[in-house]
Each structure stands twice: as structure tokens, then as C-alpha cells.
Amino acid sequence: MRESIVSAASSATALRRKWRLGYEHRIVLTALASALPGVLVSLTLLFKSDYPRGAVWALSALIVAVWLGLLFVLRGRVVRPLQTLSNLVAALREGDYSMRAHAGQQADALEEVMREINALAETLYEQRLGAMEATALLRTVMSEIDVAVFAFDADERLRLVNRAGERLLSQSAPRLLGRRAGELGLSECLRGEESGAPRTMQITFSGGAGRWGIRRRRFRERGMPHRLLVLTDLSRTLREEELKAWQSLVRVLGHELNNSLTPIMSIAGSLSSLVARESVPADWREDMASGLAVISSRAEALSRFMKSYARLARLPPPRRSPLEVSALVRHVIKLETRMKVSVAGGDVVTIHADADQLEQLLINLLRNAVDAALETGGGVRVGWGKRAAHLEVWIEDEGLGFANVGNLFVPFFTTKQGGSGIGLVLSRQIAEAHGGSLTLENRPNRQGCLARLHLPLSDES
After folding, report:
1. With a threshold of 0.90, does the pTM exceed it?
2. Mean pLDDT to the nearest integer, 403-412
3. In angstroms, rounded to a whole number, what is the distance separating the alpha carbons of residues 453 and 438?
4. DSSP labels for 348-405?
């Protein structure tokens, strides 16, 4: 019974839909109904008049014809603008923004709609042109950058690859698109947690092998999840930086070795000539002793140099423990006896750090500052304090400042007589091992140098 009722209701609904009048028919029927009373009144008066019947029928036919003609004219005036608007909207939907409606200067509702449709078409055209230009630029950048870019769908099938990716996999894009990440040797790159920081992996591809920086991001296209994979070749950059480091090191090592070997070779040659003579001078013993002393001195300098190098290369990792900053700074200041160092003071701060290493760092900085201040008769001042999430310890002197700050952290470079050239390098290594940084610069408003040590604050501070 219930199924019969539902079936009957569905049939009635379908019948109503079948006989539902369209918009055009409703316009015609409305106009027909609105004019029908006037037409009926006119025809009634005609037939009750004394005019001949032939004239009455002729006038009646004329009235009906005019009535129907005005009716269809009204239909056209209403329907045709709507058809025009429909064609315009259909063109916009199909992506054709070249069509425009004729809109006059009248302030009626229809002309206003026409103008708004034209404005919408113009806006969409400009947006489409901008999107096309942006897409063209993006494709150009994607093709030219030396970074491999891949995009995978939810099934890990490749949907996008740039020219660098093609070179990396040694295949063209048509042969790569649609294949799974496992087939391309990229499945391992998609594994693991996704984070903002890149990770590095040693990977071998058909188009190249080395160390790669990996970045991944999720995005959606047409509502479907995708993953973007970016591979950056770090090997070339690392090799270039390694080459620069070796060149700098060899340059400084060669300079230091030449400084010691040149006088050793010269004096050794002179002593050899002296010994080879048939008759030696009376003071040959003094010459021999003086020459050997110089050779011994330069050999000792070379020995100190190699020890300094070993010390720089074998810096152990920091052994962290709670460290009160003010006590450390005041202890280091007491070790400097050549002049009185001013203390600007600072906050009570505790950090987790290696006390021995930081003590050595501050001793190096303070010794350099005092050396510079003694040359000019100036002073040295030390202070510390919190700067956001970091501790800053600063040491300023009233020395001559630096003529060239570019060589400050070059290993074994020194301007001091008898200096090793590793103090600042070792200090920076200690700072970076603690997650901090060390900078040196000339003071902006006064003569002298300013050293800044930045270290991360511990939770207890």
C-alpha cells in the first residue's frame, strides 16, 4: 500500500513537471490575460453597435491581430535580452571573454545588468591574462632552475617534473609522468616526517650521485592531495666550499712554513760553506752557535705552529653544566694583570655550557682587547645581558681597531709578533659548538673594537 502511494506521488510530481510552463510561455499568458478584458469589452461594444456586420467583423479581426502582434513583440522584448545574457554567461563559462553586450547609457535595470556583465567579462579577462603570464613565468623558472622538482599524487604517481628532474633521472618527462616513486628511485625521499627544515641524504641516481638536500610539501590540486618534492645537489656546493677552505689553509700554511724554512735554509747554507772552508775564521764558533740558535728558534716556532693546528683540529664537544655568567666573567677578568678592566655589569644569568671552553674563549677575547688597548693607552670594558632568547657578552677596547676584518677568522692569520693565528678561530668554534656566534667589528662612534658573544639561554635563566 505504501509503495503504491509513493509511486502515485512520484507520478503526480513527474506530471506536474511535464506540464509546468516555461518562462516564455508564462510571459505570453500573463500578457494575454492582462489585455483580454479590454479586448472582450471592445468586441462586445462593436457587436452591439449599429455598424454593418462586415465592418464589425473586420474591426474585430483587426483588434485581435493588433492584440496578438503586440503580445509577441512584448515577448521578444523580454526574452531576447535574457537570451543575450545567457549567451554571454555561457561564453564566460567556456572561457571566452571576448563577447560583449550592447549597453546604452540609459539608467534602466536591463542596461545596468548588461554593463555589469561586460565589467565582469573584462575583469575575468584581465585575471586570466595575469594567470597565464604568471603560469608562463613559473614554467620558465621551473625549467631553468638547477633544482630537481617533482610532484606526486596520492598514489605516489609522478604528475610534474622539471628539466633538472629529467636530467637527474636521465629520462624525458613523457616517459616519467605516471610512474610510481618506487620505480623512479624516489620512494625513500618521500618517507619520514615532513617539516620545514630540509634533510640530507646520500643518493645515487642515473643522472648523478652525491649528497642531496630534500624538501617536501603537501598541496592540493582540484581538491586532490599531492606532494611536492624538491632535491638540491649539495655535493657541488660542498666541494666548492671545501676547495676554498683548502686554498685558504694552504695559503696560510705556505706563508708560515716559508717564514721558517727560508731562514733555516739560508743559515744552513752559510754554515755549510763555513765548515767547507780550508781555513776557518777565528770567530767561526760564534757564527756556528748563532746560526744554530736561529735554526733552533725557527724549528721551535714550527713546532708551536703544528701544535696550534692540532689544537684547532681536535676541539672536543662541550661538556655542559649550569654556569653562572657573572662569576665566569669576573674570574676571567682577575686573570688579566696587565691593566684594570672595567666591568659594566649585567643581569643574573645562568646558562648550560662548558665552563673550561667558555673561559678559554673569554681569555682569548680579553687578551686581544688588552693588547690593543696597551698600544694606545686606552681602556677595556666588559658587560653582559639578556637579548631576547640569547645571552650577549661584549668586550670593547679603545685600541686602533681593525684595518681589515675579513681576515679575522682565517686560520693562522695574525698581525701579532709571535702570534699563532688560531685564538679567534678557536673562540668562534667554541661559540658555534654551544649553538651561539661570535662577531668582531670596529666601534661605530669611537676608536677601538667591539667583540660580541651570543649564546642561547638555558631554561633556568
Report:
1. no
2. 53
3. 5
4. --EEEE-HHHHHHHHHHHHHHHHHHHHHHT--EEEEEEEETTEEEEEEEE-S---S-G
